Amino acid sequence: MKLYEVPNNTRIRVTGKIQSPPGAPVINVGDILDYHQLDGMYSYCLRGDEVVHLIAWADVEIVEGGEG
User: Fold this and answer.
1) Looking at residue 11, what is its pLDDT?
2) Structural domain contains residue 68
3) Do 17 and 23 contact (CB within 8 A), yes or no?
4) DSSP character for 17?
5) What percent of the chain is predicted at pLDDT more than 90?
6) Is residue 10 included in any domain, yes or no?
7) What is the 3-class SS of 29-57, one letter each residue?
8) SS3 state at 3
9) What is d(CA 52, CA 34) in angstroms, rounded to the nearest whole number?
10) Close Cβ partners of 34 (under 8 Å, ≥ 6 residues apart)
11) What is the C-alpha separation between 9 and 34, in angstroms, rounded?
12) Cα–Cα distance between 59 and 26 in angstroms, integer?
């Protein structure tokens, strides 16, 4: 599914189509992120305590339960 289809405040796993703003932390396929909201064409996500910005049309899957 695309990130823009995911409800706010959901834990996700990145499965493909990675792009982030220049100078932002690198995001890799398989990374698990806490997705909070879209902010234009990028999102506001947390990877632990680190803020990361994944492109809105990135391929992701929802992580269920205690996974990740």
Assistant:
1) 97
2) no
3) no
4) -
5) 78
6) yes
7) CCCEEEEEEEECCEEEEEECCEEECCECC
8) helix
9) 10
10) 9, 10, 11, 12, 45, 46, 47
11) 7
12) 16
pLDDT digits (tens, 9 = 90+) for 19-33: 888 888 999 999 999
Rounded Cα gap, residues 45 and 16, in angstroms: 16
Which CATH number fits the domain that encloses residue 55? 2.30.30
Whether 64 and 26 have beta carbons less than 8 Å apart is answered as: no
Residue showing tokens 């910005």: 53
Asked if the structure places residue 67 within a domain, the reply is: no
How many of the other CB atoms lie within 10 Å of CB of 43?
24
Number of domains in the chain: 1
Q: Is residue 53 part of a domain?
A: yes
Please check whether residue 60 is in contact with residue 12, taking contact to mean a CB–CB distance below 8 angstroms. yes
Query: Which range marks the domain in which residue 33 is found?
Result: 3-62
> What is the DSSP pairing of strand 32-39 with strand 10-16?
antiparallel
CA distance 45 to 34: 5
